[in-house]
Design a protein that fits this description.
With 443 residues, this protein is α+β, with helices and mostly antiparallel strands. Helices cover 34% and strands 26% of the residues. The protein contains 14 helices and 24 strands. Helix 1 packs parallel to helix 11 and helix 8 (133-140) runs antiparallel to helix 9.
């Protein structure tokens, strides 16, 4: 089967790798916006062009005789690439433009949950301008709000009271900034707890969970600094996370099932692709932070490295509406993924700097992201550069492998040493234990 991967980051490198490993008869074609050296090695054909040019993507797919497409990034989904490819007879893994609003519009998601009486939302209000923003911030309280731009912002459109915003004045200035940029926004109640990523395969009817992952959005160790696209992530061999109770996954899946049904009712279409939900375990149970309409990056790296069935067959079943549990199996191993990023990331990243991975002992652990190859030299273009994955029977062992390899990368980069570490995970377990004890005491 000729399979098109749209996108050329580490997430798409992970997709290409899992196809090569589990579906040896698949021929991979890539339409991306950078010369990813990892995908280049695996692809039969590779075109580097504009990801917003849907006509060119469709023309390339027809020229390459593509039978199935897997859409990696969010922007082409928002533009309606899945609609376009489906119209020309190409089976597609990725929701239509209408359904992709679950990611591209945070207000659409909140109002969907409200309209269909689905639990899990924090208190929120939606704003087109500054009218009423100050009053709602005061209602929530000085340190109890989150402000979110209502649109695709690459994981960087959210500011949190106490972390990024230190007063109501700061909050109003950020709201004004968004208003001036023509962006509507949401103000939400700040949740306290631990975040976790629950990704599901779905054909619009069947919904199958993947191993749970915890991402690390903050740039610096101990969860300090600005938000990023994700500095790394880990998953456990039992496919849960150490701070969760069994009921937390059940609650999250129940919300996802209701949302999937609501989407079908609302949009009159079946959602075929990846439904990625970001939840927070709180003292009051599981709450929904947001949805994404595709694989997460870095979560895809953890998850797809564990996938242990024919990935092309799974994707075909999703596109054809014939998904069953038999299409999905994961290895019982732990994973730790760490990202090397340029000095100054995310706000003042060094750009176009050399990347040297010659000392890496296991090249298969590398996932290339914002990397170009020029005359045999790897160049980091300025965003998250390269992810390193450790995989082992225990989390401690996986972390040790990831740490050993990422420390061998040479260049002007930094990474978070604490991702997957025993100390950080203990802090998160203790945090949830304290919140649950407080909840029990007030009950």
């Amino acid at each position: 089967m000729n399979i098109l991967i749209v996108g050329s980051g580490a997430r798409e490198h992970a997709i290409a790798k899992v196809l090569c490993r589990t579906s040896p008869d698949a021929l991979i074609f890539c339409y991306g916006n950078s010369h990813n050296p990892g995908i280049r090695q695996l692809a039969s054909q590779y075109l580097c062009a504009d990801l917003q040019d849907l006509d060119r993507i469709a023309q390339s797919a027809q020229a390459w005789k593509i039978e199935m497409a897997i859409i990696g990034p969010e922007a082409p989904l928002e533009q309606g690439l899945a609609d376009r490819l489906t119209q020309i007879g190409i089976a597609t893994v990725g929701p239509t433009r209408d359904l992709a609003r679950i990611e591209s519009s945070k207000s659409f998601t909140r109002h969907l949950l409200q309209q269909y009486q689905i639990p899990g939302s924090p208190l929120f209000r939606f704003f087109h301008n500054m009218n009423g923003a100050a009053a709602f911030l005061q209602e929530l309280g000085e340190h109890h709000y989150v402000i979110k731009a209502d649109g695709l912002m690459g994981g960087k459109g959210v500011k949190v009271a106490g972390d990024h915003l230190h007063s109501i004045t700061d909050a109003l200035a950020f709201c004004q900034e968004l208003t001036d940029a023509g962006l509507p926004f949401l103000i939400e109640e700040k949740l306290e707890g631990q975040e976790f990523s629950l990704l599901c395969f779905t054909d619009g009817n069947c919904l199958i969970p993947m191993p749970l992952v915890q991402d690390h959005k903050r740039a610096f160790e101990q969860d300090k600094g600005p938000n990023t696209g994700g500095m790394g992530s880990y998953s456990c061999a039992d496919h849960s996370l150490p701070f969760l109770k069994p009921g937390d996954l059940q609650s999250a899946m129940a919300i996802n099932q209701q949302v999937l049904q609501a989407l079908q009712t609302e949009c009159r279409q079946r959602y075929k692709g990846i439904l990625y939900s970001s939840f927070m375990a709180t003292r009051d149970g599981v709450k929904l932070i947001e949805y994404n309409a595709r694989f997460g990056d870095p979560e895809a790296i953890n998850i797809l490295s564990l996938f242990d069935q024919d990935f092309a067959a799974l994707c075909w079943a999703i596109s054809q509406g014939s998904l069953t549990d038999e299409h999905v199996r994961f290895k019982a191993l732990a994973t730790v993924c760490k990202y090397a990023v340029p000095m100054g990331y995310p706000d003042l990243s060094l750009k176009n700097i050399p990347l040297d991975v010659s000392a890496i002992q296991n090249p298969d652990c590398l996932y290339y992201a914002a990397v170009n190859e020029q005359e045999g030299q790897l160049i980091a273009t300025g965003s998250r550069t390269i992810a390193v994955l450790g995989q082992a029977s225990t989390l401690a062992e996986a972390e040790k492998l990831a740490e050993a390899e990422i420390s061998r990368i040479e260049g002007e980069f930094f990474y978070r040493r604490d991702i997957g570490s025993a100390d950080l995970i203990k802090q998160r377990i203790d945090h949830m234990k304290r919140l649950r004890q407080e909840s029990a005491a007030h009950a």
